[in-house]
Amino acid sequence: MPSETEVIRAALKGNPETHAKLRKLAQEGKIGTFAEIPPDEPLTLVAAVEHYGIVGAKKVTCTTCAIGVWISPSTQEMLKGRGAAPTAIICVPCFRQTIKERREEERTQ
Ligand SMILES: [Zn+2]
Question: Is pTM beyond 0.85 here?
Fold first, then answer.
């Protein structure tokens, strides 16, 4: 089974446009690493329903719809350091629904 790093590298190599967009967002400071998130700040993570064959991935449930999603070893490590800070783990469809609802709210305000 591939490691988390190998899966990410393969995904980015197979999606150069997405890779370029992510690199630009990181350079602009719009996305960052878990290390930059204060451990006492509420956090929502988006996790995939697919396992992707990552060694050490752990199945948890989506906070919103309770479907099974997988979190990587590095995410599991990060969560250990978060203590009692509110953390939600949501699936991609619930994330998309949340974005859609927020955009609709913004339009009606
Ligand atoms: Zn969900």
Answer: no
